Structure formats: C-alpha cells, structure tokens
Amino acid sequence: MNADVAPGSVLVMGAGSIGCYVGGCLAAAGVPVTLVGRPRVLDAVAQHGLTLTDLEGNKRKVEAGAMQLAQAVPVGAKPSIVLLCVKSGATAEAAAELGAALPAGTVVLSLQNGISNAAVASKAAPGLKVLPSMVPYNIAELAPGAFHRGTTGRLMSVAHDALKPWLATFEKAGVPLDLLADLRAVQWGKLLINLNNPVNALSGLPLREELLQHGYRRCFAALMEEAIGVLAAAGIEPAQVTAVPARRLPTVLRLPNWLFRIVAARMLKIDAKARSSMADDLALGRRTEVDALCGEVVRLAQSHGRTAPRNAKMVELLDGAWPKPPQQLSPDAMCRALGI
Ligand SMILES: NC(=O)C1=CN([C@@H]2O[C@H](COP(=O)(O)OP(=O)(O)OC[C@H]3O[C@@H](n4cnc5c(N)ncnc54)[C@H](OP(=O)(O)O)[C@@H]3O)[C@@H](O)[C@H]2O)C=CC1
Ligand SMILES: CC(C)(CO)C(=O)C(=O)O
Q: What PANTHER family does the record point to (predicted)?
C-alpha cells in the first residue's frame, strides 16, 4: 500500500490532549481529520492551529484550515475510523452521540485509560464497533493549541481488519499503532501505571518532579502493590508497559532517591513539562477519572471477596469530596491519608 495516500478520514471525538495530538499528527501526514470538541479547545485551534512537539525535539505545525473543527458530530459524517478521546466520565454521552450520527459498523478506537470505556461506549452505541485501545505516552497542553508528547511508546489496539490499511499511515504520522488479539493484560498493565495519576494530580507537580519525591513514590507504590495483589487473586497477569516490570515496580519506587535515579533511569525519561492527565482535570475543576482507575481496582477486589482500602481511600479523597476535592497534598499528608 502507498503510505502517502490516507486510507480514509478520521473523526476525533473529544479534542483534548490525546485527540489533538494523535489527530493532529494524522492531519500533518495528510489525513482528512475532523476534531469534535469544546469551544475552549476548538477556538484556540481555530486561532493558532496546532503545534505538536515531542521530547525528541520534533515540531510540527498544522494550520487550522487543514482540519474540520466541529462542536458536534457533523451530520452525514462517514469517517473511516473514530478516535474516542474523552475522559471516562464522558464516554457514554459521547458514544451515544456517535451512535446516533454515524453509520452502523463504524470502527471506534477507545484511546482512553481504564478498563471499561470500550464496554461503556458499546453499550451506549451498540451499532458501532468499539475497540479497546491504549495510549502509552503522556501528552500535555502547554499553551492554547500547543500539545507536547513528553514520554515515548506505541499506540495499541485490539486488531480489526479495518485497521490494517491504516498501520502505514499511523507509522508515517509518528503515532505508530500495534494491533493485538486481546488488550486486557495491556490495559491492566497501563492501569497499574495510572495509579500514579491521582498521586501526581494531588502533588501539584510535573510528573518527573513528583516521581523524584520519595513520599509520593511510597503512595504510588502502596496503591500499585495493593492492585497487584488484587490482580493475582483475580488470575490476571498484567502486561509490562514500562521499562520496569510491574511486579518489581513497588520495590523500585520505594528505593531512596539516589538509588531510584539510577535504577529507574529509563522510567525517568520524562520531559520536565509532562504532567498526568488527571492533573489537568483537577486544575480545570473537572471531575477526575479516579473511579475508572482506583475504583476499578476496588470493584475487582470486591468481586473476588477482597478489599482494596488504599485505592478506595483515593477514590474517596477525590470523588467523596466532589465538587471540592483537595487541590494539593504534601507527601506526608498523602501518606497519612492513605494510612501508610
Ligand atoms: N493526556 C494524557 O497524557 C493521556 C491521557 N490518556 C487517556 O486519554 C483519554 C483522554 O484524555 P485527555 O486527552 O487528557 O482528555 P482531555 O480532557 O484533554 O480531552 C477530552 C476533551 O473532550 C471534551 N469532550 C467531552 N465530552 C465531549 C463530547 N460529548 N463532545 C465533544 N467534546 C467532548 C472535553 O471537554 P470537557 O471535559 O470540558 O467537557 C475535553 O476537552 C482519557 O481516558 C485519559 O485517561 C491516556 C494516556 C495519556
Ligand atoms: C501516560 C500517563 C501514564 C502519564 O501519566 C497517562 O496515562 C496519563 O497521564 O493519564
């Protein structure tokens, strides 16, 4: 296949960090892209276009006119594929809108964290073919219309014939995509890493700075260790999605700073600007995805006759206090809150 000819068009549902970065990279590679999003983001894109940068030092510019910008799924849209990029709490509503507007059978990649988004979307839009997918890297919105990839990795999705013609295009666009028969192990492996999202959000620090604080690492390690125990009880073997295997990560996280810097050098290859997607939610006063991350661990524990008190506590801290969750916790205060 000629990689210079896009196999079709792409609709991004939820133009935020992931949607603008992945959709923008595809647009920069010549793919016709529609960004469906909110005025906060779309107005900025209309004014400045997209500037896409990464930790390898690349910089791409996409003019606003090169993409279609829309606040709702355009009537009559027939995208070849849809990238579902809303936060977990918005999945059902966004999927229902897609289901009402798009032809039956349209393939939707759920480029979302957590375990259940594809199932939630399929329930809300049974006519669509929703595929669990995974984004390994961090994207931060640095300025209006400016999105930065601060870590590395390859997108993954459950395999589907409709995706095969797209692989060369995703590769050329700098957002390589791998297809797997089953994504469950990868999703759980990624969720273990995402247990740092609430720690990072509540630290008020960029990811790298937060991970260099021993107290925050102890909190991440405790949430992760608890989740690993629950996964073992459920017979789920999480895939390795970082340089350090999940089972060893809690021990590595608890190392003193000087040793952690050496042992976790590859893991610490994070751009100084990167912050977790949950930090954005807390900063913008939006409800966080804590229930789709820590809450998923709590529910898996319950379904196997166990408890996950530290993950439950994190849900309580952020969701229980909604709409006024704490904005920042010191490492000591967070350790105390989690009973560490
Ligand atoms: N950012 C990151 O580095 C990473 C994020 N992820 C995951 O990717 C997913 C997306 O995250 P991220 O890109 O950070 O999220 P963002 O919040 O940056 O982007 C989502 C955007 O979609 C908008 N939106 C919500 N519902 C609709 C709708 N019905 N129609 C149009 N727009 C809508 C939101 O607006 P509003 O909320 O204001 O309504 C928001 O602007 C999440 O599951 C996240 O966990 C995974 C890996 C890394
Ligand atoms: C890539 C990673 C792990 C970065 O924190 C993430 O998934 C997120 O921010 O939601």
A: 2-DEHYDROPANTOATE 2-REDUCTASE, 2-DEHYDROPANTOATE 2-REDUCTASE-RELATED
What distance in angstroms lies between residue 40's CA and the mean position of ligand 1's atoms? 12
Domains and CATH numbers, the chain: 10-182 (3.40.50.720), 186-337 (1.10.1040.10)
The DSSP result for 93-160, as a single string, is HHHHHHHHHS-TT-EEEE--SSSSHHHHHHHH-TTSEEEEEE--S-EEEEETTEEEE-S---EEEE--
d(CA 145, CA 73): 20
| Ligand at shortest distance from the CA of 281 | 1
Structure tokens at 299: 């529910």
Distance 288 CA to ligand 2 centre (A): 13
Q: Is the pTM of this model over 0.95?
A: yes
Cβ 150 under 6 angstroms from ligand 1: no
Q: What is the pLDDT of residues 54-112, one digit of tens each?
A: 999 999 999 999 999 999 999 999 999 999 999 999 999 999 999 999 999 999 999 99
pLDDT tens track for 130-153: 999 999 999 999 999 999 999 999
Q: Whose C-alpha lies nearest to ligand 1, atom 47?
A: 135
Determine whether the shortest distance from the Cβ of 329 to ligand 2 is under 6 A. no
Ligand closest to Cα of 17 equals: 1
**C-alpha 191 to ligand 2 mean position (Å):** 9
Residue range 248-252: average pLDDT?
96
Which atom of ligand 2 is found nearest the CA of 138? 1
Among protein residues, the one with the nearest Cα to ligand 2's atom 10 is: 277
Cα–Cα distance measured from residue 331 to residue 333, given in angstroms and rounded to the nearest whole number: 6
- ipTM field: 0.99
